[in-house]
Write a structure and sequence with these properties.
Layout (H helix, E strand, L loop, with lengths): L5 E11 L2 E9 H6 L1 E2 L17 H11 L9 E5 L7 E5 L4 E7 L5 E5 L1 H4 L8 E8 L3 H12 L7 H11 L3 H4 L1 H11 L9 E2 L12 E2 H15 L7 H18 L1 H5 L9 H17 L7 H12 L15 H16 L2
Parallel strand pairs: 3-7, 4-8, 9-10
Antiparallel strand pairs: 1-2, 1-6, 2-8, 4-7, 5-6
Helix pairs in contact: 4-5, 7-8, 7-9, 8-11, 9-12, 11-13
Length: 333
């Protein structure tokens, strides 16, 4: 049987903040060959990083190949589930040796995906830092802190990370809880129609972003905070029944979302504000699908959601407010 080969890199170990790390140097091609990025797959929920952007990586390649260019250390994590393929041997003082089994991508890319993306054949030396044995939750948290303000990183993706990292989502961020349920509940009209900012095989049918949905839900919760004294699950059911009623009343516009504004920003913001008003107008009502349909029925013949209709030229927050006021006037709240 052929014995597996390995590569050993000298470096030092130390503590960064409260976590142990290994610091070393290696070529870009070696680091690229022995690492992987864990991109979020919206269909399975696996992974957490943004999709690869080749132009972003080419920009970095063009820069780093210039004379006297440099970059901060690339950041990786060595996950425990791959521990059979990596080891750290400590020497005297802070010296240490990192050994990686050849042919196994052990290094999880935490902050370097786009810097390494187009450097597969480049033998340029780069500094790197590796966290040792972080679990996926810890790794995701570090990624989120480093990249939450990064150019090109979807705010929906960082919102999604937050929803995965909070220990009690229903208590700490109920707007994120409801928004995720709308996207992940097969009974929801929004099932798999909300973009988290990752990759998906059904990307073309996604109608709105997680950031936009959670912002509108947050507004609804703020509107009804003092009058809707029910559990977060109960509040989700209110939102769910409302959107089922919307889907039924405006079935044609809902199906043809590309030619209509009902699931776009102005429609989403306006309708969620209207929901808040409906609840406030009768907080003890049975908020069933039938109840919401009876409230929305006056809109069926008077509201045209098409991109060539009444709201064709509205946009932004002011446009959403104009649409909301028009809806409110029609239902006489």
């Amino acid at each position: 049987m052929k014995k597996n080969t390995a590569t050993t890199i000298p470096g030092i170990v130390g503590v960064a903040g409260g976590l142990e790390v290994f610091l070393g140097f290696a070529t870009a091609s070696f680091l690229c060959k022995n690492s992987f990025s864990d991109i979020l797959n919206e269909d399975t929920g696996e992974g957490y990083q943004r999709p690869y952007n080749r132009n972003h990586s080419l920009d970095f390649r063009n820069y780093i190949l210039r004379h006297a260019s440099s970059t901060p250390p690339l950041i990786f994590n060595l996950r425990n589930e791959l521990c059979r393929s990596w080891s750290i041997q400590k020497g005297s003082g802070n010296s240490a040796f990192l050994t990686l089994e050849d042919g196994v991508r052990c290094l999880a890319q935490v902050d370097c995906q786009h810097r390494l993306g187009e450097l597969g054949g480049v033998d340029l030396p780069l500094a790197f830092m590796i966290y040792l044995g972080l679990d996926l939750r810890q790794e995701m948290a570090i990624f989120n802190v480093i990249n939450s303000k990064a150019k090109g990183l979807s705010s929906s993706l960082t919102d999604y990370h937050e929803s995965k990292l909070l220990s009690d989502l229903t208590k700490d961020a109920p707007h994120l809880f409801i928004s995720r349920r709308l996207n992940e509940d097969p009974a929801s009209p929004w099932y798999q129609l909300i973009r988290y900012g990752g990759e998906t095989t059904s990307g073309l049918k996604r109608r709105t972003s997680f950031r936009m949905m959670q912002k509108t839900v947050q507004t609804f919760l703020a509107q009804t905070r003092t009058i809707l004294d029910i559990s977060i699950e109960g509040k989700y059911q209110v939102v769910l029944c409302f959107w089922k009623a919307v889907q039924t009343i405006f079935s044609d516009a809902w199906k043809d979302h590309r030619s209509n504004l009902i699931t776009k920003g102005v429609g989403l913001y306006a309708l969620m504000q209207l929901l808040g008003d409906i609840v406030k107008s009768n907080p003890k009502a049975d908020f069933s699908i039938d109840y919401f349909m009876s409230m929305l029925l006056p809109l069926k013949s008077s509201i045209d959601w098409s991109s060539q209709g009444r709201f064709a030229y509205v946009g932004g927050k002011k446009g959403a407010q104009d649409v909301y006021q028009a809806l409110k006037n029609e239902v006489s709240l």
